[in-house]
Each structure stands twice: as C-alpha cells, then as structure tokens.
TrEMBL record:
UniProt keyword terms in alphabetical order: Hydrolase, Nucleotide-binding
Taxonomic source organism: Lasiosphaeria hispida
GO MF annotation terms: GTP binding; hydrolase activity
Protein name: P-loop containing nucleoside triphosphate hydrolase protein
Gene3D superfamilies (UniProt xref): P-loop containing nucleotide triphosphate hydrolases (3.40.50.300)
InterPro entries per the UniProt record, alphabetical: G_AIG1 (IPR006703), P-loop_NTPase (IPR027417)
Taxonomic superkingdom: Eukaryota
Pfam families assigned: AIG1 (PF04548)
Keyword Chaperone appears in the UniProt entry: no
Coiled-coil region(s): none
Length: 238
C-alpha cells in the first residue's frame, strides 16, 4: 500500500458503547499501525482517551479517531467526560472529520434503552447536516451460533427499516462479520468516495471550534442529549 502524498486525509470518528468493537475495527483495517491496540472484553473498556491512528489504504490516507465507549443512560457524569474528551480531540485535530461511524452490537438484539440513548448521542454529535456521512456498523456476528444466524439477520433487517434513521432517512449500515474480512475495507472505500475539504462539519466540531469560550460540553447539542435524563429527574450527577 503506497502512500499518496497528494491525497487529502480521510478522517473518521468512531463512536459507540464500551465493547462494541471500535478497537477491533481499527486492528482489522489499520495494518501494522493497529497491531498494538488493546481489545477489551465484555463491559471492560480498553480505551480511556481518544487516540488517532494514521495509515494508508488503496492510496488514500486515513486518520481514525478512536474514542472511549459511551455508557448507559444513568452514567451522566461519565458520558459528559467522554464527550469532553472527544471535543478536546476535535479541537486538536487539524482536519475536519470526513465521516462518523456508530458501532452497534447485533447481540444486543433490540435497539432500545441504552442502545437507543447512545445512538441519539451519536446523532447529536454529528448533526442533521452531517447525515450523509454517518454510518452504522453492526458487530459481534462471530459470537452467533450458525443455527441462530437467520434470527440475527432479521434483526439487522429491522435496523435498516426502523431505528437507524435521521430526519426520515436511513443511515447506511454495514454488517461486520469476521468471516467476510472484505466488508471492513468496504467501509473505508465508502468514505473514500466523499470529497474532502469544504463539506459541512460535524455538529460537535462546529460547536467547539466556533466558540472558543465554550468551557463545558453540557451546552453542546450532544451534551444536552446526555442531560435530558437529568433534567427529567431520571438520574442524577454524583
């Protein structure tokens, strides 16, 4: 894979709950750059800070921003801390985000509760103007027994027909099955086709770069999404 110096960098932001496969995705696509990445097990996170992985695929340069895993609806303080970490990374990164990927464990079965909450945070991070550059990938297909595969394929179909929407449009979905390694690179190729440069920025990127006096992510669209349950009295910040 030869580097193409003239090719603008494709910057991808990875978002999802703890243990949803973000680090595994990087390990698959980034070649030698991703070999030393730690992979979490179950609910135990291995990523506590944002980290950028740079590599070249098919003569296109990529920068992938790995982020800490989002927590459940009650973990308000933890989710705000994660948002702040992401905001700080977006401020520091010298290129606009090209696309954003949400990671959903197909083994979670129903897209409700924490899954829905985390996806709503993802949408708020991206913003409606960024919709065409949002992707969802489903993971953990290797944990499914062959006899149960048709059931989970039906779940994937349900996602395409319902919850994965934004402003009445369906978010592009890829099923990341380890038995088909090519699909991981199909995700990269999907984003490589987008023009870089003057596209509309990620919502959170626009908020933190456009307001240097912004000291708290609580006032961003994503921060307000996290705070909804606090304001409704469903949880408290300790």
């Amino acid at each position: 894979m030869a580097a193409n110096i003239a090719s603008p960098e494709v910057t991808l932001l990875l978002i999802g709950p703890t243990g949803s496969g973000k680090s595994s995705f990087i390990q698959k696509v980034a070649g030698p750059v991703g070999r030393d990445i730690n992979i979490g097990s179950g609910p135990n996170p291995c990523t506590f800070r944002c980290k950028v992985y740079k590599f070249t695929y098919n003569e296109t340069r990529f920068a992938i921003i790995d982020t800490p895993g989002l927590e459940d609806v009650a973990a308000t303080a933890a989710n705000l801390k994660i948002l702040q970490e992401i905001a700080n990374q977006l401020k520091a990164h010298d290129a606009n985000v090209t696309g954003a990927i949400y990671f959903h464990r197909i083994t979670d079965k129903r897209f409700t509760g924490t899954s829905r909450f985390n996806f709503d945070i993802f949408k708020a991070i991206c913003g409606e103007a960024f919709f065409p550059r949002m992707v969802c990938v489903t993971t953990m297909w290797n944990n499914i027994k062959p006899r149960r595969m048709p059931d989970f394929e039906s779940l994937s179909k349900e996602l395409r027909q319902g919850p994965m929407d934004f402003a009445g449009k369906s978010v592009k979905i890829f099923d990341l099955n380890g038995s088909d390694p090519d699909v991981y690179f199909e995700v990269l190729s999907y984003f490589a086709q987008f023009p870089r440069g003057n596209h509309r920025p990620l919502q959170l990127e626009k908020e933190v770069r456009g307001n240097p006096r912004l000291k708290s992510v609580k006032k961003t669209m994503a921060g307000r999404e996290v705070m909804k349950n606090v304001n409704a009295g469903f949880c408290v910040i300790l």
